[in-house]
Amino acid sequence: MKFAIIIVLTVIFSSQLAQAQKTDTVVVPLARTSQIIFTISDYKDLETLRHYNFQALFDDVLKRLSASDTTLRADTTQVASSENEEWNEPSQEEAEEDEDWDEKVSSYTSRRTWQTVNVDLGTNNLFSGDQFVDDSKVYAVRPWGSWYVGINSVHRSRLAKKFFIEWNWGVSWYNFKFENDDVVITTSETGVDFSRSDADVDYVKSKLTATYINTSLVPILDFGDRTVKPRVWDGYGTEFRIGIGPYVGYRLASKSKLVFEEDGEREKEKDRDRFYLNNLRYGVRLQWGFRSTDFFVNYDLNEMFQEKKGPHVNAVSFGIIF
Tell me, which fold does domain 117-321 have in CATH? Predict the structure, then answer.
């Protein structure tokens, strides 16, 4: 309940500032007889306020109020005992009793690690050598429809003022939609084979999908000095940011799907198999962003299939981060 109050408080506060840029004082009513007063002389403080851990700050304030201690101090913030009382600096004795307050406030504004959930949405393709696989290969894929989806728990740790480490773990789904809709995937002791079907049916699509659990470690240089990255829907953001680092994934499942129409009926053939895919995948992740938009590129350094069991190709994915 307290956390919800803080969220509402922050939203109201931000809204008030957006509607009245010249207003130096914002009064936010809370309970029946309670209110919070924000007094701002320099709007550059807004960026600092966005970094505050209001939940921890508010918990500490409530604890002190419950103990009848109304001489709180946080940099230039004071809490008076009544609405009509003037703001006064705490006495020397009160300051000594409250000597750890500044340290607590500092911890609120410089929390070193933040956690959030990101969604990667993009497309896949296959590299052979130094170029994409062309249409002359049966296993050539169609970027539109070869969707990449990743859901990640992202932990962003501050190492320096503008330098962060993002360490993530999550699950991703690779979809490789073949350029030819009649591609049939078969396996034998010698490896995996891709061929064109000669059946007298109308093929709709053919694809190979694989699911991986992943982890990554990406150093980030953020020129905007924000602990928490803005999201696409935030509508605001900071300056340019960029990072590159390694990732590794382990295959959980894989299957092929062939969709066709026969005698007016749509049919699906699914085959759950390993297809000689490498269980382990590892590579390099590049991500960059400006304001509230971030992009990513994942490139697998190891080949997609086991040695001498399939085509010599590497997977690449690129898209946007939500």
Answer: Porin (2.40.160)
